[in-house]
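Shape is hard to put into words, and the shape of a protein is harder than most. The fold becomes a row of whole numbers, each drawn from a learned catalogue of backbone shapes. The outcome of that step, for a single protein, is printed below.
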Amino acid sequence: MLENVMEFYRNIPPKQCASCGDKMEEQAEAYSTVCDKCSSSI
């Protein structure tokens, strides 16, 4: 059972910017959907 849970977390795709689609570094307690580059150009 534990292996199934671990496999689930390994297969989650990386977080992507909603604006440009670039891969974002995920951070704890961060819920933004756009990267720093896109958020600074708004």
Notes: The two ends are 45 Å apart (CA to CA).
